[in-house]
Task: inverse folding
C-alpha cells in the first residue's frame, strides 16, 4: 500500500472458470468491467480451475485452458501490479477453507442451488460430491480475501447469498472473522444476446457458431457473424420494443463505441441494416484486435506467463493464508509453527 487513500478502498473479488473462450457477451458484460474496477477497488481476480473439475476435463486441454484464461485476463488489461491475479489451484488455502466451510454448510442449502440442479441434470452420469459442494469452495474463494463486493452475473447471485449466510454463521458461531460481501451487479455491463435468437443470452455453448462472437474470432469471422445476425423487416435502425435483434446490435455498438442510442439512430438514419451490421462488426473487431495481439504475445512466452502466475499465487497466498489461519485458530486447530 503506497498511501492512505489506497488503504481505505473497498475490496472486490471475482473468478472465472477456464472452460472455453469467453464470448463478446462475457467481455462486455463482465470482464471489461473488471478492468475498470481496478482503480476504484482493491481487486482480486482468479482463474477458478478447481471449479472446472466438477465436470469431466481432459487433462491436456484443462492445462492449456488455464494458461489461456490467465493470459486473456492479462491481455484485457488486468494489471498484476494493481490487483491480485492468480490461478486458484496454485493457492492451496482455497481448497483448505473450502473444506472447513463445507463442514458449516447444510445438505439442504446445497440441494436448493439451482446451478446444482441444472448441472446434475445435464451431467447425470457424474453427479459428484464436488459438484454438490461447489458453493462452499466458491464461498472460500470469496471470503479468503475479505471483499466488500463480488462482481457476478445473475446466475451466481444465489451462490453469493449462500456465501453471505456462511460468513454470518461463522462470525456468529466463533467471532467476527469474515467481511460479509455483497454481490455487485454491474451498472454499465451490456447484456449481450445471441445473434441468432436475441431472446436468449449470448452463450459460448450455443450449438450454432453464428450465435456468438468469441473473443478470439478474427476480423473476417466477426464481420461474417454480424452480417448474419437476426434483425427484422423494418429496415430502420431504432431502439424500440419488439426489435430485439436490432436492439441487441445497437447495445453492442453502444458498449463498444460509447455512443448513445440516439446518436446511433442519427448515424444510421436512412441507411439499411447492411451498413449498420458492417459498422458493428468493424467496431467489435477493432475493440478485440489489441487484446488479441497482447494475448498472442503472452501465449508466445510461456516462461514469463508461468512466472506471472507464480508471482500472483504468492501474493494471493499471503492474503489468503492470513484469513485461513485465523479461521483455523478459531475453530480449534493446532497451527504448526
Ligand atoms: N462459480 C463461478 C462461475 O461458474 C466462478 C467462480 C468461482 C466465482 N469462484 C468464484 C465467481 C468466486 C465469483 C467469486 O461463473
Result:
Amino acid at each position: 500500500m503506497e498511501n492512505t487513500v489506497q488503504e481505505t478502498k473497498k475490496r472486490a473479488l471475482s473468478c472465472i472458470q477456464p472452460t472455453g473462450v469467453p464470448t463478446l457477451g462475457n467481455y462486455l458484460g463482465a470482464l471489461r468491467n473488471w478492468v475498470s474496477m481496478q482503480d476504484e477497488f482493491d481487486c482480486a481476480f482468479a482463474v477458478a480451475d478447481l471449479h472446472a473439475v466438477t465436470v469431466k476435463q481432459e487433462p491436456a486441454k484443462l492445462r492449456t485452458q488455464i494458461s489461456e484464461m490467465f493470459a486473456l485476463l492479462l491481455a484485457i488489461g488486468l494489471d498484476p501490479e494493481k490487483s491480485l491475479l492468480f490461478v486458484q489451484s496454485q493457492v492451496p488455502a482455497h481448497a483448505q477453507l473450502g473444506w472447513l466451510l463445507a463442514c458449516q454448510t447444510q445438505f439442504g442449502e446445497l440441494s436448493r442451488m439451482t446451478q446444482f440442479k441444472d448441472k446434475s441434470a445435464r451431467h447425470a452420469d457424474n453427479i459428484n460430491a464436488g459438484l454438490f459442494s461447489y458453493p462452499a469452495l466458491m464461498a472460500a474463494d470469496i471470503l479468503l480475501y475479505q471483499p466488500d463486493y463480488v462482481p457476478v452475473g445473475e446466475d451466481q447471485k444465489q451462490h453469493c447469498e449462500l456465501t453471505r449466510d456462511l460468513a454470518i454463521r461463522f462470525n456468529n458461531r466463533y467471532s467476527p472473522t469474515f467481511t460479509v460481501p455483497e454481490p455487485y451487479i454491474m451498472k454499465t455491463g451490456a447484456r449481450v444476446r445471441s445473434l441468432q435468437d436475441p431472446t436468449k443470452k449470448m452463450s459460448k455453448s450455443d450449438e450454432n457458431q453464428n450465435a456468438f462472437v468469441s473473443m478470439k474470432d478474427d476480423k473476417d469471422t466477426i464481420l461474417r457473424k454480424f452480417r448474419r445476425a437476426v434483425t427484422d423487416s423494418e429496415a430502420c435502425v431504432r431502439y424500440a420494443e419488439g426489435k430485439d435483434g436490432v436492439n441487441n446490435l445497437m447495445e453492442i455498438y453502444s458498449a463498444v463505441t460509447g455512443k448513445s442510442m440516439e446518436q446511433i439512430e442519427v448515424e444510421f438514419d436512412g441507411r439499411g441494416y447492411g451498413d449498420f451490421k458492417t459498422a458493428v462488426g468493424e467496431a467489435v473487431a477493432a475493440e478485440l484486435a489489441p487484446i488479441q495481439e497482447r494475448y498472442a504475445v503472452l501465449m508466445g512466452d510461456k516462461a514469463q506467463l508461468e512466472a506471472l502466475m507464480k508471482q500472483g499465487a504468492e501474493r494471493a497466498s499471503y492474503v489468503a493464508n492470513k484469513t485461513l489461519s485465523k479461521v483455523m485458530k478459531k475453530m480449534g486447530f493446532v497451527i504448526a509453527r
